[in-house]
Amino acid sequence: MPAARHSEYSLSTGTVTFLLTDIEDSTRLWEAQPTRMAGVLARHDALCREVVVERRGRVVKTTGDGLYAAFDDPFEALSAAIEWFVELAALADPSFVPHAVATELGIADEAGVSITDTLVRHLASRRLLLVLDNAEHLLNACAQLVDLVLRRCRDVKVAGSL
């Protein structure tokens, strides 16, 4: 029986790279807002699965608020991890949200064009998940940017954490 069970999976014979996700401080959030967290967790899992599959990875296991994925190509794993995360905790000025996102994604300012327009134009041709982390103190600025990105960039998904 175990042999048949393992035959369902395509096992790698070379290097395997793992990517693990976790929602920080989720126990406290589950206790404080269980209904909201159920939706957040469902969205987290769906977005992470989408990115993993797009980068030719496999979801190996989910554990509460975590997801484990395996990749045969370490560059695909790295791509899945770095394309989706913009840390905003240290940002004090909401007007710099577009700059912070552009900087994280390696997008440079263009003379005579707003950074927001440059960012949206760059993202319009991409397929990625963008996570704005620790955005609670920048909600309005993040909401404005997310609204613009989602309207103009059909293959970009956005998630945020508070």
Mean pLDDT over the full residue set: 85
- Strand arrangement across the biggest beta sheet: 1-3-2
Number of helices: 7
Mind describing the biggest β-sheet? 3 strands, antiparallel
Q: Could you tell me the number of beta strands?
A: 6
The 3D shape can be described as: globular
Topology:
Layout: H1 2-7, E1 17-21, H2 26-32, H3 34-54, E2 57-63, E3 66-71, H4 74-82, E4 85-87, H5 97-104, H6 115-124, E5 128-133, H7 139-152, E6 156-160
Parallel strand pairs: 4-5, 5-6
Antiparallel strand pairs: 1-3, 2-3
Helix pairs in contact: 2-3, 5-6, 6-7
What key phrases describe this protein's structure?
3-stranded parallel beta sheet, 6 strands, 162 residues, Alpha-Beta Plaits, 3-stranded antiparallel beta sheet, 2 domains, alpha/beta
3D architecture notes:
With 162 residues, the chain is α/β, with parallel strands linked by helices. It has 2 domains: 70 residues, 2-Layer Sandwich (Alpha-Beta Plaits), CATH 3.30.70; 80 residues, Barnase, Chain D (2-Layer Sandwich), CATH 3.30.370. It contains 7 helices and 6 strands; from the N terminus they run αβααββαβααβαβ. The chain has a 3-stranded antiparallel beta sheet with strand order 1-3-2, with helices on one face. A 3-stranded parallel beta sheet has the order 4-5-6, with helices on both faces. Strand 5, helix 7 and strand 6 form a beta-alpha-beta unit. It is globular and about 50 Å long.
